[in-house]
Amino acid sequence: MEKNIVLVGFMGTGKSAIGQRLAQRLGMNFVDTDREIEKLTGMTVAEIFRKSGEKRFRSEEKLMAAKLARRQGLVVSCGGGMVLDPDNVKELGRRGVIIRLEANAEDIYRRVMKKRQQRPLLKRGLTLEELRQLMAEREKSYQCADIVINTTSRTIEEIVELILAKLKGDGHENPEG
Ligand code: S3P
Questions:
Q1: 156 CB under 6 A from ligand 1?
Q2: Per-domain boundaries in the chain
Q3: Are 164 and 18 in contact (CB under 8 A)?
Q4: In terms of pTM, does the model score above 0.85?
């Protein structure tokens, strides 16, 4: 597939795991924006937030969006905040199909709290209610997607199948040739 497939969605919706599997299935290259930023800066995402602040991280994200938009044939897993900047959405959507992964707040809460240290936006002792609020604040930004996939109660394999079917059904190029 020539177009990029861009996975967006809240933290803990499985973008990286699903993106990797999807890329494998399609024989496409996989890029995770957080990992790319870490390679480029030589710092983990948590370190960037701690040492240079969120603003610096968001500007690294913006550069990454512009850079990836010039490439083709990638499966891109975006950090959860990538789509908060409409310029990033425009860039990534130029040559890409944007797919939103959704999950319910309880599932997300369970997943993100396991790896909270790696997610600087989630403070210690974050409650389910606070998480719901953050999800609600961001809801509008995630509505930029061309395709929406609900991941609740589905395995990675089922979600990948669903994405492949949607890509075909929505008139995008036949993803498996
Ligand atoms: C963020 C999500 C994280 C990472 C950073 C900020 C966000 O990525 O980019 O901690 O603003 O939602 P994941 O969605 O992969 O956790």
A1: no
A2: 4-156
A3: no
A4: yes
